[in-house]
Amino acid sequence: MTSKRYSARTLDANALKSFAHPLRLRIYELLDEHGPSTATRLAALLGQNTGATSYHLRELARHGMIEVVAGMGRGKEKYWRITPGGYSYGDQPVDPEAAGALEFLLDDLIRQRSAELARWREVADRAPAEWYQVSGFARRSLRLTPEEAGRMRDEVLEVLERYRAVSDGRAESVGPEDVAGSAADAEGSAQAPGGAEGRVAADDRRDAETAQAGGAGDSVARGVRPGSLGEAGGATGGAGSVPSAVELERSGETAVGHVIVHFDVLPIGAVQEG
C-alpha cells in the first residue's frame, strides 16, 4: 500500500545524513519549541560557541529544514525558524550510510517522545486550566486489516494537516519580542539528546573548527491531573533536557501555545515472534 505524503518535503539520503547529528537535532528542537532565534542565542542556550551554531544552522538550511526570517534582526543579525510544511523521512534508504542515519533519527524520535510525555506528566498540574482541560493521553488496541489501518492513519493525518496549516500561518506573525521570552525560559535546560553527549562534544569540536575555518487494552485520559491515575512505572523526571511542552503566548484575549501531538500506528501483532 502506498503511503500518502503529508509533508512539504521528503528528506533525501544527503539530508538524512546531515540531520542525524545530535547538536543539529537539538537546535531544530529549540526552534520548534520556542520559535525563531539567532546563532548567538542558541549558542548561549547550548553551551556552544557562535561559530559552531552558525555552521549547524547553515547545514540545516542547506537541506531546507530551516530558513531565515525576513524582516527580523538588526544589521547582519539573522533569525532562523523551522521551514513551514514539515518533512518526512520517506522510504527505507538503499544507501547503508543513509539507512544508518535514519535509524539514528528514529531512535532520537522515540527519545524525544518519551521525554515530552514525561515532562508533561511532571508539569501538567501547573498548567493553566484552559490548557489542562484540553490535554489528553490516548491509546487504542485495534484489530484491523492493512487497508483499514492505512485508511485510519491517513484520516488522522489529514486532520493534523489542517491544524498544521493553521499553526504555520501563525508562525508567519511571530516577532522578536515573542522569541526573547520563550528562549530565555529554555536557558539552563538546553542539553544534547540523551546518550549522545560524547558524540556532540567530538563532532562540535570538529564542526566549530570547520565553521571558524498489540493487545494491552485501550486507554484515554483527558485533562487528568498527575497522581489521580494509577502510576505505571513512575514515568516522571528524567526529562530535564526538553523544555516545557506548553510555551504560552498571548494574542489579545486568545491563548496560543505550543501543543505537541503524538500519533503512531504500530502493527506489532503482525510480526512473528523470534
Strands, helices and their partners?
Elements lengths: L8 E2 L2 H7 L2 H13 L4 H8 L3 H13 L3 E3 L11 E3 L4 E2 L7 H28 L5 H6 L1 E4 L6 H26 L4 H11 L10 H16 L6 E4 L26 E3 L2 E3 L18
Helix pairs in contact: 1-5, 2-4, 3-4, 4-9
Keywords: DNA-binding, Transcription, Transcription regulation
Protein name: ArsR/SmtB family transcription factor
Pfam families: HTH_20 (PF12840)
Structure description:
The chain is mostly helical. The chain has a single domain (9-259), classed as Winged helix-like DNA-binding domain superfamily/Winged helix DNA-binding domain (Arc Repressor Mutant, subunit A). It has 9 helices and 8 strands. The chain has helices at 13-19, 22-34, 39-46, 50-62, 96-123, 129-134, 146-171, 176-186, 197-212; strands at 9-10, 66-68, 80-82, 87-88, 136-139, 219-222, 249-251, 254-256. It has a two-stranded parallel sheet. β7 and β8 form a beta hairpin. The longest helix is centred in the middle third of the chain and has 28 residues, at 96-123. The two termini are 25 Å apart.
Annotation keywords:
9 helices; Arc Repressor Mutant, subunit A; two-stranded parallel sheet; 274 residues; single chain; 47% helix; globular
Helicity, as a percent range:
40-55%
| CATH third-tier fold name | Arc Repressor Mutant, subunit A
SS field, number of helical segments: 9
The biggest beta sheet is recorded as: 2 strands, parallel
